[in-house]
């Protein structure tokens, strides 16, 4: 049961995501934003981008605020030709949308502060600083890190912790049950926080508003940069998972090799016994 709860925490950590990890401005990742299908929009935030002849296909996922901001900075820089650079009026739209999103997120956190505080406590985060938006985000990050650590420990163990045998230590059995109950409550809290996350103000509309003021030529240049940055971001996110897989594979290979050696030793002993007879 303890392992089941531990795995539940790991699964629910993926639901909770890396929410509230940095500033609510455009220079922060926005893992809180779930996928939302649109007929048109920013490439990467819709299944197809209809403003280009090729209609390039992208993953149906949100663009992180970090990637979008880097793209905007690129479009404002001398890295692109002058005719494609964002104008002062276009940058005004960027700032307006940035401020609007920041205000929406701050208001949402304040509105749900009491519920979030209780759930954070149930999730194991004590004395969280709920007086500021940053404090709430940092507390949420602790929840994610805690669940991720439990997931890694479970993977390394590779087996369910043994329970006391029948007639064994009653106190130990009670302790295991208490731990399992506590883990279950923690998992439920993380799940509830994930539900709150679903309604967190998303950046998709802000991104679309900025995209709408670009010319077709600007969109083509920005699209190419977005694709490049999103590919890098996906690769970086994938590395930890790949590393875990490699470590597990190496561990399994070692176990197989050890098993083979034991079998060889057994066969040798059998042969020695036959010869001695």
Task: Describe, in plain words, how this protein is organized in 3D.
- The protein has 277 residues and is mainly alpha-helical.
- It has one domain (2-276).
- Helices cover 67% and strands 0% of the residues.
- The longest helix has 61 residues, at 216-276.
- It starts with a helix and ends with a helix.
- The model is unreliable at 2-39, 46-60, 159-168 and 170-174 (pLDDT under 50).
Top keywords for this entry?
277 residues; mainly alpha; 8 helices; 67% helix; flat; disordered N terminus
Number of strands: 0
Based on secondary structure, the structural category is mainly alpha
Main sheet, how many strands, which sense, barrel?
Answer: none
Oligomer category: single chain
Q: Count of DSSP helices? A: 8
The low-pLDDT segments are: 2-39, 46-60, 159-168, 170-174
Structural shape: flat
- Number of separate structural domains: 1
Helix content: 55-70%
Average pLDDT level: 71
Order of helices and strands: HHHHHHHH
Topology summary:
Elements: H1 2-16, H2 65-76, H3 88-111, H4 113-122, H5 133-157, H6 170-198, H7 204-212, H8 216-276
Helix pairs in contact: 1-5, 1-6, 2-8, 3-7, 4-5, 4-6
């Amino acid at each position: 049961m303890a392992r089941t709860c531990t795995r539940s925490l790991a699964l629910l950590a993926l639901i909770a995501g890396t929410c509230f990890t940095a500033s609510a401005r455009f220079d922060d990742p926005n893992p809180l934003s779930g996928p939302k299908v649109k007929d048109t929009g920013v490439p990467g935030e819709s299944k197809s981008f209809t403003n280009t002849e090729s209609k390039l296909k992208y993953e149906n996922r949100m663009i992180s605020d970090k990637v979008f901001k880097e793209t905007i900075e690129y479009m404002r820089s001398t890295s692109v030709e002058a005719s494609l650079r964002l104008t002062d009026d276009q940058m005004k739209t960027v700032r307006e949308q940035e401020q609007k999103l920041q205000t929406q997120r701050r208001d949402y956190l304040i509105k749900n502060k009491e519920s979030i505080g209780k759930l954070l406590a149930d999730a194991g985060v004590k004395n969280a600083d709920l007086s500021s938006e940053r404090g709430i985000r940092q507390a949420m990050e602790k929840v994610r890190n805690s669940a991720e650590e439990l997931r890694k420990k479970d993977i390394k163990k590779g087996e369910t912790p043994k329970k006391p045998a029948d007639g064994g230590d009653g106190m130990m059995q009670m302790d295991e049950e208490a731990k399992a109950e506590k883990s279950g409550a923690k998992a439920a809290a993380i799940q509830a926080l994930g539900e709150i996350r679903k309604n967190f103000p998303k950046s998709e509309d802000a991104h679309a508003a900025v995209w709408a003021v670009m010319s077709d030529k600007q969109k083509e240049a920005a699209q190419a940069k977005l694709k490049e940055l999103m590919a890098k971001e996906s690769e970086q996110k994938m590395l930890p998972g790949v590393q875990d897989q490699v470590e597990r594979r190496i561990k399994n290979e070692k176990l197989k090799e050890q098993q083979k050696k034991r079998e060889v030793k057994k066969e040798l002993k059998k042969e020695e016994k036959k010869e001695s007879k």
